[in-house]
Amino acid sequence: MPKRVVLAYSGGLDTSVAVRWMIDNLGVEVVALAVNVGQDGGTLDEDAIRIRAEAAGATDCVVVDAREEFARDFLVPALKANALYEGRYPLVSALSRPVIVKHLVRTAREFGADAVAHGCTGKGNDQVRFEVSTRAIAPDLEVVAPVRSWGLTREDCILYAYDHGIPIGATKEKVYSIDDNLWGRAIECGEMEDPWTVPPSTVWSLTRQTATEARDLVIGFERGVPVTVDGEALGLVELITTVGAVVGSYGCGRLDMVENRRVGIKSRETYECPSGLALIAAHRDLESITHERDLAREKQRLEIRYAELVYDGLWFSPLRQALDAFVEESQRFVTGEVRLHLEPGSCQVTGRRSDYSLYDYSLATYDAADAFRHEDSAGFVRLWGLGLETWAARQGSPAAAPGDG
Ligand code: ARG
Questions:
Q1: Ligand 1 atom closest to Cα of residue 262
Q2: Three-class secondary structure assignment of 112-142
Q3: Cα–Cα distances in Å, from 367 out to 143, 353, 371, 373?
Q4: Per-residue pLDDT tens digits of the chain, which is 405 residues long
Q5: Which residue has a Cα nearest atom 1 of ligand 1?
Q6: Ligand 1, from 84, 91, 132, 179: best to mutate by most atoms within 8 Å of Cβ?
Q7: 205 is an active site residue
Q8: CA of 354 to the centre of ligand 1 (A)
């Protein structure tokens, strides 16, 4: 049995009750750790968090601003990999868990704790990410998952908090499970558990359309890292926040999908990721002019695998490290600018340029400047089709193939 536990603390009802519950039921000391990864626009109320953690019985409460680290060490690699789970979801929650685990482990060492804890249920992906990541970087630490075992309903939790003098703020009925950070926001549960139901407009907060005038947004990249917006150099956190605010104000960046969870459940998910989706669209487009064809194709194959690894809680794995080395090498010439055009409800790439562009006007053009050797094509195309020609002559054309009847 552990003696001292560091809990990933959000300041919400579940993790507040978890503090008290672990003290009372496991006889442990609890250190609460709140990690700022940009949730609620980065406006983490440290004092409120401390007061609540201590009221719940935490012996210490540590608050870490990990936004810069999260952006640099987690979001940027994922952006370079154009990481989209099942081709769509930019891994908002999946990317934040390993950075939180890093700080859980660091804090556990600092406080001489022998376990870490999280407030995830037994049905989701986040428990997988917390636990697998912890085992990968600190196999000696135990992982405690109180919410998975306590069997309390939401009403039970509210009563428990009330009985134990834990201030929980407004107890208005919480319909949705929300997780957010710099890369976007995930909204689950409520009526959206029916995949046919239209998400109520009230669930959106980062993508409410307020802008009415069309505009452009030019993103500048250096070796795959976004560094400027409309020519102005910005630090990563500010850049991501700015892009998210602008793109979101045009109502862009929403996703509504049914995805495959690691634990075998299909779940209906709604996301709003104006920053993540716009930056990936821009980055991917810049690669279209700076990547040689075979590099581009191989990278696209690996991107799928990369996203699956991150989703499945395998951030700290040799394969992710090796893929990152490949991706990093591929970014050497991904330097240049991409123009996004924004109109209410639409965000489209309308231009890209790079000093390293492989786009060659004299090869591509149909006008007088054309330098392409048209005469070379005749022999090339003949040889390209030679195998099929032989096959058609000896074994018949596909139209005449058996079974096509
Ligand atoms: N389905 C997404 C994922 O697995 C979002 C999870 C959101 N987490 C939450 N606790 N609401 O990455």
A1: 4
A2: CCCEEECCCCCCCCHHHHHHHHHHHHCCCCE
A3: 66, 21, 10, 14
A4: 899 999 999 999 999 999 999 999 999 999 999 999 999 988 889 999 999 999 999 999 999 999 999 999 999 999 999 999 999 999 999 999 999 999 999 999 999 999 999 999 999 999 999 999 999 999 999 999 999 999 999 899 999 999 999 987 765 557 899 999 999 999 999 899 999 999 999 999 999 999 999 999 999 999 999 999 999 999 999 999 999 999 999 999 999 999 999 999 999 999 999 999 999 999 999 999 999 999 999 999 999 999 999 999 999 999 999 999 999 999 999 999 999 999 999 999 999 999 999 999 999 999 999 999 999 999 999 999 999 999 999 998 666 665 654
A5: 269
A6: 179
A7: no
A8: 36
Protein residue whose Cα sits closest to atom 4 of ligand 1 = 125
Taking CA atoms, 236 is separated from 69, 78, 239, 275, in Å, by: 10, 14, 5, 11
Q: Which tokens sit at 48?
A: 């409120």
Which H or E element spans position 92? helix 92-110
In ligand 1, the atom with minimum distance to the C-alpha of 94 is: 12
Q: Does 177 participate in catalysis according to the annotation?
A: yes
Site of tokens 């009802």:
13
**Per DSSP, what are the bridge partners of residue 271?**
186, 255
Contact in structure between 236 and 219 (CB atoms under 8 Å): no
Report residue 45 as tokens: 């109320």
> 179 CA distance to ligand 1 centroid (A)?
7
3-class secondary structure, 10: coil
pTM above 0.70, yes or no: yes
Q: Is 97 assigned a catalytic role?
A: yes
Beta strands in 300-381 (DSSP E): 336-343, 346-353
Alpha-carbon distance 308 to 93, whole Å? 13
Phi, psi (degrees; rounded to nearest 5) at 401: -65, 145
Strand order in the sheet with 254-260: 177-181, 184-188, 266-272, 254-260
